[in-house]
What does this fold into?
Amino acid sequence: MIETARYAYYPGCCSKASAKEYTATTRLVCKALGIELEESPDWICCGASSAHSIDRILGIALPAHELLYAGRMKLDLVASCALCFSRLKIAAAELKDDDVRKRVGEVLGQEIPGNPDYRVMHILQVLEKHLDRIHLEKPLKGLSVACYYGCLLGRPKEVAFDDAENPQVMDRVVAALGGEPVEWGFKAECCGGSHVFTRPDIVSKLSHRLLYQAKQAGADCLAVVCPVCHSNLDAMQKSIGKEYKEEVDLPAFYITQLVGLAAGLPPRKLMFEKLFVDPMRLLRAKGLA
Amino acid sequence: MARVGVFICHCGTNISGAVDVARVVEAAQKMPMVVIASDNKYTCSEPGQASIRQAIVSNKLNRVVIAACSPRMHEPTFRKAVSAAGLNPYLLEIANIREQCSWVHSHDREKATAKAIELVKMAVAKVIRHEPLYPREVPVTKRALVIGGGITGIQAALDIANAGHEVVLLEQEPSIGGRMAQLDKTFPTLDCSACILTPKMVDVANHPKIRLLTYAEIKEVRGFVGNFKVEITQKARKVDYSKCTGCGTCWQKCPEKTPSEFDLGLGKRPSIYIPFAQAVPTKPVIDTDSCRYIKYRQWLAAGEQGKKPPECRICEKICPTGSIAWDQEPQTITEEFGAIVVATGFQVYDHRHYEEYGGGAYPDVISGMQLERLMNASGPTGGEIVRPSDGTHPKTVAFVCCVGSRDQAKGRTYCSKVCCMYTAKHAIMLKEHDPDVQCYIFYIDVRTGGKDYEEFYLRTLDDAGAIYIKGRPSKIYRDGKKMIVLGEDALMGRPIELAADLVVLATGMEPRTGADKLAQKLNISYNTYHFLVEAHPKLRPVETQTDGIFVAGACVGPRDIPESVAQGSAAAAKVAGLFSSDTLVTDPITSVVNRERCTGCLLCVAICPYKAIDCETTRDTRVVAVVNESLCKGCGLCVGACRPKAIDLRGFTSQQILEEVNSLWS
It folds into this structure.
């Protein structure tokens, strides 16, 4: 019997809306791997791009609320969203400063303990750490996957856990699932992020390049670890294709969906129907569905 | 009985401006054993020195204290002065009342004067305990070792040899010539690199005073200035050079082909090879990693496992002189030298570290050095500039400056100095090769510090029509046949996307791999990038902290050819200066071991930064430390480390220091 691994889990706001399938499959996969996720009963938004661009202390105080919870639980804090992860880890680094801790304490109305090392992990790190727990029921044989990390996991250097320009963690996870990670140069380029609301032209340009490069590199699909990246690359894919007069047809999975698939979890539980670009034809072609 | 004379200097107003010299004189006159105390406006001047000489004679002085500037400034001057009056020069003590007193306490005359008096008092207490010391003379082996056969080492070797001294020129590769041999043209004159280099290489080979040791490496260095013992490993060439005539039959017939180091992987060479046509010596070596017969022998030795490699031996069959020596093994040679010049040069920064530029995966993203080989008439394409991927002629060429230079993210903060200029050269040369080529150069700053360099750079703009874009590109990727360079035009303040046929990365310089290991063997310093450290960056640029070891060229920091040549000559001048006398005078201020007290713990051996302490066994079989006085710099670390207090430092004995300190309370 494998010992249960326990982590504090921060789902993030997207888990309630656009990334329901990411959170659901994260929970599902972790359960299957004997990883227990303890969700804080009163988690709040991490502030995303908005908070820290308005006020530095606010940008630390919001994630600090969650760090305090993990600290009380004496658990490492896991986030599945790349931006949540980035904000949490930056806050953890900032809280090492006495003055910052004092000011954040004033905002939160409680003292921030100085000592505990607030450890923040991304779900990719957790998956890699427990790779040996995966029973490969359905290896992703013949599935060429372009692993897309987004621009936040490797930057800035202080919070990164992998190379900024050519990260490898997800490639290792996909390879362990029996899939074939493709070599491509846009793993960590920006997709345009939340500019989709204000400057969709930027997002179309950047995301089109990503999709096009992944296709050129010979990928059948993308693996993604951030809800915003995902909506740009999946939900926007059709309109981007129209704009550039080029259908890409590249299903974009959350990495947890691929882990679940390889681990033999029932496809209907992996919520493939939530994806805008239908992956079923591809999966059937590869004998995976 | 000590008879001390104290001489206090005004140093113009440098000292007297803050210190009441008259009161110091008055106080000094009352100090124990002081026979005479006087002052002088400028003690270092000839009249000042003369008054000291006179006072020594007329007052029968046998100890002298001079209260003046730092001993770093004028100790040698004053030693000569007392010596001229017949006194042992080490019976002098200097009290530094300028740098350590008047200059730092100029605001408080009272306290400055009190401190000056105390400094003089300490010097008097110490000098009373001084003993005469005598410099030793050691013989000099008038033979120099030059490590590195690039242009710097070649220049140093030729200059030393032309001064009449024997030189061994050591090179780790099969031929001398170094990086300059790989270049096509040189800026700013566009001289053909080989045409100006290869005659010098031939001079080296033909010089009666120079012995060439190629394909060899330093194993160990012992000894000290004038008397180095160096163990050299001669790598196995598998060719007997005493028989080989360099006819070239073997390297023409060898059937195995492997990527050429000299052409940076763009071309191929046989397994038995000379690196390039004008190599010196023009005799081949066998590359044991690729040779078919060597592989066959390894297969035999491994018990015939796996696929049988062909038992080729073609070179052996066709060699007219029977020079192939399969059983040749590496040899160790021990040689003695009086001086060593380190000129190990640089290597080109490996652009595979730049993942954002493809990490070396795109064949059409090449380094500047690779472009040199493509442009060179004897290069892999015969001088035709083509894209490595498909052999077509590039029409749009993008250059990226500062790859591996001025980039903190890659741990390379320094400027490599030559890349701006060689990129300008490349742009001019490309235009000359093909007038249809358009060059775009991404730069941070264009640095052209050198004679005629700025004028040369202007030609890039005016004649070659190159377009300079300010900003370091963020990404390079492939789109179909084109390479796309993404960046920012920092002057226009907008992003830029450039589709190029070929991208040339102006990769910087870094020290040769292993420069740190060599420095450790030589006991010289190196910095965080493994560039060697000179004794003084401005005033002693080719010397090191270890006497008799000199550094020159790009192993010290990025250098272009003229600077490297100048440094090679400078190091040679230093060697010739060292060899100008038959013996060397060594400073007697060294540590000395009391063998009765020494317990043989040898902590001093470990702590000595100059490797000056060794151990030996006494007749009653005890192990004791012994100081090599030629290596000892008198730093005193061993004195502090010695637990049984068996080590003392001449001129700074524990007793002298104690007297100095005690004088403050008496």
Chain A has a mean pLDDT of 93. The longest strand of chain A covers residues 5-10. The interface with chain B takes residues 157, 163-166, 183, 185-186, 189, 213, 216 of chain A (CB under 8 Å).
